[in-house]
Amino acid sequence: MECTVSWTGAAGTRSPMGFVAETGSGHVLTMDGAPDEAKPENGGRNQAPRPMETLLAGTGGCTAYDVVLILKRGRHKVERCSVKLTSERAEKDPKVFTKIHMHFTVAGKGIPEAAVARAVALSHETYCSATIMLGKTAEITTSFELLET
């Protein structure tokens, strides 16, 4: 896996702290920094997600992918799955994630609650590389709700 991140914030550009990531699979993701009112030339323009937000989003995508795949492999009729991540970060540099809560909402027909609990646990404990990696600095908790469609 590879990714090239390039600064796009040269003088005269939209944001002095803008970046573009080009992934090995050929996709592009833009990122920007938070505005710095004290030194505007050092801050972003809030025109794209922050790098740490993209890390959190990627973690959500990684674990949601696992949950859907595990449920589908169990022949469950999954129609929707989302995960809302809330986090806390350290106050001092490096401002690592210290707490992350993942709340899954799974919708489908006749999915047993135990199957969703198992899928979330397997992702959290075994399959989701991002969750397991971030678990080195953050306390990660999960919850879920199951909706019948």
Short description:
With 149 residues, the protein is an alpha+beta fold. It has helices at 51-73, 113-127, 129-134; strands at 3-7, 19-23, 28-31, 77-89, 97-109, 139-148. The protein has two domains: 3-42; 51-148, GMP Synthetase, Chain A, domain 3.
Model description:
It is a single chain. By secondary structure, the chain is an alpha+beta fold. It folds into two domains: 3-42; 51-148, GMP Synthetase, Chain A, domain 3, CATH 3.30.300. 30% of the residues lie in helices and 34% in strands. It is built from three helices and six strands. The strands form two sheets. It has a three-stranded antiparallel β-sheet with strand order 1-2-3, with no helix packed on it. Strands 4-5-6 form a three-stranded mixed β-sheet, with helices on one face. Helix 1 (51-73) packs across helix 2. The radius of gyration is 18 Å and the shape is elongated.
Low-confidence stretches: none
The CATH architecture assignment of the largest domain turns out to be: 2-Layer Sandwich
**Residues in helix, %:** 25-40%
Largest sheet: 3 strands, antiparallel
- Dominant shape: elongated
Structural class: alpha+beta
Organism: Variovorax robiniae
Region (Disordered): 33-53
Protein name: OsmC family protein
